[in-house]
Hints:
Elements: E1 13-14, E2 33-36, H1 43-55, H2 65-74, E3 79-84, E4 87-97, E5 116-124, H3 133-145, E6 153-158, H4 163-168, E7 172-181, E8 184-192, H5 196-201
Parallel strand pairs: 5-6
Antiparallel strand pairs: 1-2, 2-3, 3-4, 4-5, 6-8, 7-8
Helix pairs in contact: 1-2
Amino acid sequence: xxxxxxxxxxxxxxxxxxxxxxxxxxxxxxxxxxxxxxxxQDAICVFEIEREAFISVSGECPLHLDEVxxxxxxxxxxxxxxxxxxxxxxxxxxxxxxxxxxTEDALTLHKPRGSTVHIHILAVHRTFRQQGKGPILMWxxxxxxxCLPNVRRAxxxxxxxxxxxxxxxxxxxxxxxxxxxxxMTFTEMLFPISGHAYMRRNSEAIRFPQxxxxxxxxxxxxxxxx
Length: 226
């Protein structure tokens, strides 16, 4: 069973520096931007974003609503949501797997003793696409996984047009995935997780930056809706 105690410093609010005087700010108690694990109360929002993002492209959702609830119940620590002023704008859902390659069972099972994180889905709300949130959230998620001492790799399956996006995030192509959905085929990709000893030793000193993390996007990223 994995321990997530040392990973907690990675789930911290992103607090941007106000660009206006404190007296002119909107009065509310919600942080402007934060990243946190998801829970079952987020399931409907997650599914609505997922359905809009995937049905229009492929006609299939990676996870149905009951499956979203299933994974957010069994392994919420392997999810990550980007919240802006109380609104979910992007998310990742993962689970543990215990084999070298994905099989049909990986779509629905969580293997607590596994050392592979199966990333089921990364999705961004349509209003917030083309802003680089997909690459940023994936980067933060992969850094977070480095704090989980039993995790050795992350894998996912994607359609071919998404391969360049995941290559830029550091994934490598493993080959054709054994899983098919309807008439759709997928490529399986791998991200090796390393640096665990260093991360555990320094976990108490690790904090997210106080300013929103931004990454320069190549022009080709503009065509990826994440």
